[in-house]
Amino acid sequence: MKLRNRDIIAVNTVEDYAALFGCPPVCHPLLSVCRLSDVKDYSPVGKPVQLNLYTITIKDRTTCNAGYGWRSYDFSSGTMNFFTPGQIHSWEEKTVNVGRWGWMLAFHPDFIRKYPLGAKIGSLRFFSYDVREAID
């Protein structure tokens, strides 16, 4: 399946990320921290999403399967995810926010650009692994 650019939802700002995933409004234009229990409803069900941000999620007791690359993963027993700008993922079903635990952190590349982490983040294995390396 070849996706066209118009079929992909591109998320370029932290504000767009918070709105799309049902997070409370952001207090900083380059950074968002959100408890999963505070997430309302997110709208990208059924469409691939390209996050042009760094994101880290820690979650448990979720009720969804997510597509990452060309594969589907079950996140119901807990997971930590690290996404780099440009990666694409999707959700094929709506989740219910009952008993969900975890945090979502999203930050724009500009947030770390002038710091040593900005130069090193690409070499961190948890941000740089290939989707095919993921453990089943």
Describe the structure.
The chain has a single domain, classed as Jelly Rolls (Sandwich), CATH 2.60.120. It is built from three helices and nine strands; from the N terminus they run βαββββββββαα. It has helices spanning 14-20, 116-120, 125-128, and strands at residues 9-11, 31-35, 49-51, 54-60, 65-68, 71-74, 79-83, 87-91, 101-107. The strands form two sheets. The chain has a five-stranded mixed beta sheet with strand order 1-3-8-5-6, covered by helices on one side. A hairpin with a 2-residue loop joins β5 and β6.
What is the element layout, followed by pairings?
Layout: E1 9-11, H1 14-20, E2 31-35, E3 49-51, E4 54-60, E5 65-68, E6 71-74, E7 79-83, E8 87-91, E9 101-107, H2 116-120, H3 125-128
Parallel strand pairs: 1-3
Antiparallel strand pairs: 2-9, 3-8, 4-7, 4-9, 5-6, 5-8
Largest sheet, strands/sense/barrel: 5 strands, mixed
Strand order of the largest sheet: 1-3-8-5-6
Helix content: 10-25%
- Average pLDDT metric: 78
Radius of gyration using CA atoms only? 14 Å
Q: How would you sum up the global shape? A: globular
Summarize the entry for a quick read.
The protein has helices at about 15-20, 115-120, 125-130, and strands at about 10, 30-35, 50, 55-60, 65-70, 70-75, 80-85, 85-90, 100-105. The chain is mainly β and about 140 residues long.
